[in-house]
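User: Here's a chain of 279 residues. Predict its fold as tokens.
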Amino acid sequence: MSIKGLQTEIKPQWCPGCTYFADLQAIYKTFLDLGFDETNLVLVGGIGCTGRITSYVDLYTIHTLHGRPLPVALGFKLANPKMNVVVVSGDGDLLSIGGTNFIHTARKNIDLTVIMFDNFVYGLTKGQVSPTSPHNLVTSTTPYGNLDEPVNPISLALISGATFVAQTFALDINHTFQVIKEAINHKGFSFVNILSPCITYYRSEDVKTFRNKIKQLNEQYLTDLAKAVYNSTSYEYYVGVFYKVEKPSFESYLLKDIVPLKSELYQKEKIKKLLKNYS
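Assistant: Prediction complete.
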């Protein structure tokens, strides 16, 4: 298969020059490189500019409700733990209305890969302040500057219990591809934050200035949580793998190699009876 084979007939609808085009290319490249069976991979999207991605990848995809991609992804994984489940969402979707879902899915260490396109604003609805908007950022809803301190996605993922945490920069497609690939191969809750500043509504600085803040992370402290949290609080944006540890996943404890979709739980007559009881 080629990248063209992963593309749908729908052309991506983002602003010209949007960093999300680069994010999408990295995802195409990852899926192509890993060579997944198309029937054994599902891509779950949220709401917002990022949520559009489910229309651009020719695989099993689902476009969920605002803030709810993780509960839906969890359902897929528990119904069929053999399924590769990848979530793609934005900072507003995952860390605002979906914030508690993010924390509790991470602490359970569900075997999911969560990729966040972090553009620092609500882009689809014309540039409102988001959970990751920097302090003093002027937006359509903070005309005198953002009074809040931003949520730090890397710190939040680390203290919530994620067992793989990384950050990349959208315009470094090869690095993003390598990190996403490593995240998908990790068994447990994997979180990759792709720094993807919105070129239309993130007016704090241009992409070139933003890029100057990016530094490569020293990866020798992968299992040191305290060091990972310390690195995540830097003013500069570190890219690389902050943390990676091996721990049993939630579904391995719960299901113990049972695949519910293939068990008696999913016999047709039982499902019909269940639906009748609740219809």
